[in-house]
């Protein structure tokens, strides 16, 4: 018989050989698939590790940038605070200067009023003295 003739009926041995061949091919396919899966897992783990490393690097870079920005903002806020304090002090100085000028002019007015008051008192004392002299001449007792 010719083994290459495809029209011959299959024997139990042929079927068993076919089963054996199929089992071996399935076993080889499983082994190959396991190897491929293991390779893919290893590759994925490597990619994930690389991604984690890259993300950590990016996060550290962002932290550094954020710290720098916050330091810059703090410096700017301090400078603004110092300028505001200086402006308030300048305004305070101007108010005090205006108040002192006002106080000086009022002090001069008060001194002038006091000197006028003293002059008026002196004149009244002189008039009272003269009146007393007149009353003495006229021999009139002072009206108490």
Task: List the topology elements.
Elements: H1 12-137
The low-pLDDT segments are: none
Helix content: over 70%
Termini separation comes to 177 Å
Derived from helix and strand composition plus strand pairing, the structural class reads mainly alpha
Mean pLDDT: 89
Number of DSSP helices? 1
Beta-strand level of the residues, as a percent range? under 5%
Q: Strand tally, please?
A: 0
* Main sheet specs: none
The global form is rod-shaped
Q: Mind telling me the C-alpha Rg? A: 59 Å
Succession of helices and strands: H
Task: Write structural notes for this entry.
- The structure is a single chain.
- This protein is mostly helical and about 140 residues long.
- The chain is about 90% helix and about 0% strand.
- It contains one helix and no strands.
- The longest helix has about 130 residues.
- The radius of gyration is 59 Å and the shape is rod-shaped.
- The termini are far apart.
- The model has no long low-confidence stretch (mean pLDDT about 90).
Please supply descriptive tags for the structure shown above.
single chain, 144 residues, mainly alpha, 1 helix
Put the structure in a nutshell:
By secondary structure, this protein is mainly α.
């Amino acid at each position: 018989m010719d083994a290459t003739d495809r029209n011959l009926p299959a024997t139990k041995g042929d079927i068993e050989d076919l089963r054996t061949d199929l089992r071996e091919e399935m076993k080889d396919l499983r082994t190959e698939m396991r190897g491929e899966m293991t390779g893919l897992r290893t590759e994925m783990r490597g990619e994930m590790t690389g991604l984690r490393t890259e993300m950590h690097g990016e996060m550290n870079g962002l932290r550094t940038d954020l710290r720098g920005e916050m330091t810059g903002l703090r410096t700017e806020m301090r400078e603004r605070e110092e300028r505001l304090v200086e402006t308030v002090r300048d305004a305070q100085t101007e108010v005090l200067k205006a108040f002192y000028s006002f106080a000086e002019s009022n002090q001069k007015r008060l001194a002038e009023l006091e000197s006028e008051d003293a002059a008026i008192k002196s004149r009244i004392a002189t008039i009272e003295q003269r009146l007393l002299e007149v009353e003495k001449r006229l021999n009139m007792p002072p009206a108490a």
